[in-house]
Design brief:
The structure is a single chain. By secondary structure, the chain is an alpha+beta fold. It has a domain of 81 residues. It is 56% helix and 11% strand. The protein is built from ten helices and four strands, in the order ααααααααβαβββα. Strands 1-4-3-2 form a four-stranded mixed sheet, with helices on one face. Strand 3 and strand 4 form a beta hairpin. Helix 1 packs parallel to helix 8 and helix 7 packs antiparallel against helix 8. The protein is globular. This is DUF4919 domain-containing protein. It comes from Sporocytophaga myxococcoides. InterPro entries: DUF4919. It holds the Pfam family DUF4919.
């Protein structure tokens, strides 16, 4: 029975569109905090973790971007945790990767890097759970890919974790040369300069306003608490 659910879940992930769409973060924030909404976050997360095959791409969008409005959202702290996972995988300490990823995943279930590194470790140990973790990774990655095409600031991919930029770049097969961070129209963008590629793209844009705005809000909060 469980294997059948996994297959259905994977088939659902496979048909998701990756065409660009504008992300209305205000609408998402209201929806995930509303107990009467189908996107109420606790229920949405429960369905996601139970491999609910009736979830649709709007659900996954709210799941990924809605996490930015949860109390456990600390984007800058995730950078160090992601690095530790990568280092452990590089050292082939796969059991340690799984343990650390599980401890992170309880409070931060939508970080793409965490899911990828756990999936890699599980696959290295030939554990069946890898199929489930990889499917979760794939659907959240597609939610990010659906946010734009990355060709301009106006159509930038929108992420809630900085590490997710690398997951998108890797999934698209781009070789990167350098990164620049710019501010345009009161929004923050990471601009990745690309190596030669078949698409003949010179740059790829990521909208990182959400994590940067969190930094500003946290700074204001810290200043208020210190007075």
């Amino acid at each position: 029975m469980k294997s059948g659910l996994i297959i259905c879940f994977l088939l659902l992930f496979g048909v998701l569109s990756i065409q660009g769409q504008q992300i209305d973060v205000k609408e998402i924030e209201l929806a995930i905090k509303n107990p009467e909404s189908r996107f109420f976050y606790p229920l949405l997360l429960k369905r996601f973790n139970s491999l609910d095959t009736t979830l649709k791409k709007e659900d996954f969008k709210h799941l990924y971007y809605g996490f930015a409005f949860r109390e456990n959202y600390f984007p800058f702290e995730m950078d160090e945790l992601e690095k530790r996972l990568k280092d452990l995988n590089y050292a082939k300490k796969f059991e340690d990767v799984i343990d650390l990823a599980d401890s992170i995943g309880h409070s931060v279930p939508t970080d793409l890097t965490v899911l990828f590194e756990k999936s890699y470790a599980l696959r290295s140990l030939a554990k069946k759970e890898e199929v489930i973790v990889r499917s979760k990774y794939n659907v959240l990655l597609k939610a990010v890919l659906a946010s734009g095409d990355g060709k301009s600031p106006e159509t930038a991919y929108q992420v809630v974790f900085f590490g997710d930029e690398m997951e998108v770049l890797s999934a698209l097969g781009f070789r990167i040369l350098e990164r620049q961070t710019i501010l345009k129209d009161n929004r923050f963008y990471d601009v990745w300069i690309l190596g030669k590629n078949k698409q003949k793209l010179e740059k790829l844009y990521f909208d990182v306003t959400i994590p940067h705005k969190f930094e500003e809000q946290q700074l204001i909060k810290d200043l208020k608490e210190s007075n």
